[in-house]
TrEMBL record:
Pfam families, per the entry: Sugar_tr
The Major facilitator superfamily (MFS) profile domain, residue ranges: 23-468
Keyword list, A-Z: Membrane, Transmembrane, Transmembrane helix, Transport
Reaction catalyzed: myo-inositol(out) + H(+)(out) = myo-inositol(in) + H(+)(in)
GO molecular function annotations of the record: myo-inositol:proton symporter activity
The family this protein is said to belong to: Belongs to the major facilitator superfamily. Sugar transporter (TC 2.A.1.1) family.
Membrane topology: Multi-pass membrane protein
Keyword field contains Repeat: no
SUPFAM superfamilies: MFS general substrate transporter (SSF103473)
BP term (GO), one: myo-inositol import across plasma membrane
KW Transmembrane helix (keyword) present: yes
TM helices/strands, residue ranges: 16-36, 64-84, 91-115, 121-138, 150-169, 181-200, 269-289, 309-331, 338-361, 373-392, 413-434, 446-464
Protein name per the record: ARAD1D13442p
Length: 526
């Protein structure tokens, strides 16, 4: 055991192949579509006018349109983990693009409210599948010490999609049926990814789970440049050891699914992973971010800004920039520390926002920008910038590291539960946000979300262990016997020392007798 895991740690010092970067960026088209959908609907809702059914949209109509995508994504996310286990990660991602394109066509051609809602619902299926399988694919392809950064690239694509959608929306705000052009443009990245992904490899962990050891070894050789034969063999042996019971020859997919469900809830380590991942996804959504993304243009128009979509670009741009910051520091600072630092900052931004709205006139989401801009409206923007900065650095990306928490036999179904939690939260937030603004005022609404950020801080402090630098298999060991927050921090420190011993990632690296005790100590079982 010690020798195999030790060499598995040694292979992580190898140079990462350019192929991994290419795969990550191509997979991140899924994230781009996720973000673009969030961004374009915000701008579309303020310019759609009477294009859908010949009359202006009510607040209820807007909530229906936005929540349709969340509902479709919720349903799809429940199923997509099982689909990824049945058909493979790459083919499920390919299929998601078909749904993206079909949903976009329906929306472009929509001349009634319900066709628009239907198109949003179909696109939601694509978003739900992609939001689960894309980070799963990247996590299983990535070397351990780069996994956090590479998954964050998908989140960068989400924020980049939002930013580009806002920019296009601002440019087309005065164009007749410009919102249809916005929707139509979304088909381009979907078509590109659908074609290119046909030629991409499947993940080695999935291949091992299907019994295709030779192909898995070939993919690993492409991921780790200049890896020695013993290192590759030990890495494959580790994957086989952790996936040896998963193929279950002779059983139906239904039987395997039920067994995975049972293992997810009855095996303590798996259930702890489920609590952590669902908790983080819930915190992300109930911090209120998606409500801001879906309805930011509506809110800014109501407080007096004549081009609210352009103002939304500032908020989205801030989120994008600070997601880049997260990319640079997530594997160095660690996931846990990022969350503990940023959740309180989000709460601060929301509290300032609540105070600003207290001094503004009553909000009217059907207003067309006739309200004069005041100093408190500027405070609203500043507070949202603070909120967006802390969100982009922390909770906006850390929950999508969810695949690293689960062993292979429950990774698909576990990721489904976590992603479904995200979309269930998005559905609730998008379906209730405007109603909350009217019923408990903007001050009460943003104060409520601030309180939930504080709850999230407590959750992370007591239950979320540090996983930066650990292999997916080591994370599973860590959760055996408890959440082991203190032990995770010790392991993280040891790994930083271990990887720092060879910053050059030299091609001649080998695990010596002196190296072996270090590697063995890093992965000692609980």
């Amino acid at each position: 055991m010690g020798k195999g895991i030790g060499n598995a740690a040694a292979i992580e010092k190898r140079k990462m192949a350019p192929l991994v970067v290419i795969l990550t960026f191509l997979t991140s088209f899924c994230g781009f579509m996720f973000g673009y959908d969030t961004g374009y609907i915000s701008g579309a809702l303020v310019v759609v006018g009477t294009d859908l059914g010949g009359k202006e949209l009510t607040s209820g109509n807007k909530e229906f349109i936005t929540s349709a995508t969340s509902l479709g994504a919720l349903i799809a996310s429940v199923l997509s983990g099982t689909l990824a286990d049945l058909f493979g990660r790459k083919w499920v991602i390919t299929g998601a693009n078909v749904l993206f394109i079909a949903g976009a066509i329906m929306q472009v051609c929509a001349h009634s409210l319900w066709v628009m809602i239907g198109g949003r619902f179909v696109m939601g299926w694509g978003v739900g599948i992609a939001s689960l399988v894309a980070p799963l694919y990247i996590s299983e392809m990535a070397p351990s010490r780069m996994r956090g950064r590479l998954v964050v690239i998908n989140v960068i694509a989400i924020t980049g999609g939002q930013l580009i959608a806002y920019a296009i929306g601002a440019g087309l705000s005065k164009v007749d049926n410009g919102w249809r052009i916005m929707v139509g443009l979304s088909m381009i990245p979907s078509a590109v990814q659908m074609i290119m992904f046909v030629f991409m490899p499947e993940t080695p962990r999935y291949l091992v789970s299907r019994g295709n050891i030779t192909h898995a070894r070939s993919v690993l050789q492409k991921i780790y440049l200049n890896a020695s034969e013993p290192e590759l063999n030990d890495k494959v042996d580790d994957l086989v050891m952790y996936t040896r019971d998963e193929t279950q020859e002779g059983t139906s997919w239904m039987a395997r699914t039920f067994k995975s469900l049972k293992d997810l809830h009855c095996v303590p380590a798996n259930f702890r992973a489920l609590v952590i991942t669902c908790g983080l996804q819930g915190i992300q959504q109930f911090s209120g971010w998606n409500s801001l993304m879906y309805f930011s243009a509506t809110v800014f128009e109501s407080v007096g800004f004549s081009n609210p979509t352009a103002v939304s670009i500032i908020i989205s741009g801030t989120n994008f920039v600070f997601t880049l910051v997260a990319f640079l520091i997530i594997d160095k600072v660690g996931r846990r520390r990022l969350l503990l630092f940023t959740l309180w900052g989000m709460a601060l931004g929301l509290v300032l926002n609540a105070i600003a709205f207290h001094f503004l006139p009553p909000l009217d989401t059907t207003d067309s920008g006739n309200t004069p801009i005041t100093g408190w409206a500027i405070v609203v923007i500043i507070s949202m910038l603070i909120y967006a900065a802390f969100y982009g650095t922390g909770i906006g990306n850390v929950p999508w590291q969810q695949a690293e928490m689960f062993p292979m036999e429950v990774r698909g179904i576990g990721s489904s539960f976590a992603t479904a939690t995200n979309w269930a939260g998005s559905l609730v937030v998008s379906a209730t946000f405007l109603t909350m603004l009217h019923n408990i005022t903007p001050t009460g609404t943003f104060a409520f979300y601030a309180g939930l950020c504080v709850v999230g801080e407590i959750f992370v402090y007591f239950l979320y262990p540090e996983t930066a630098g650990l292999s997916i298999e080591e994370v599973q060991e860590l959760l055996t016997g408890g959440f082991n927050v203190k032990e995770s921090l010790q392991r993280s420190k040891q790994l930083k020392v271990y990887y720092a011993e060879d910053k050059s990632d030299d091609a001649g690296f080998s695990t010596t007798v002196q190296d072996k005790p270090i590697a063995d100590n890093l992965v000692k079982r609980n």
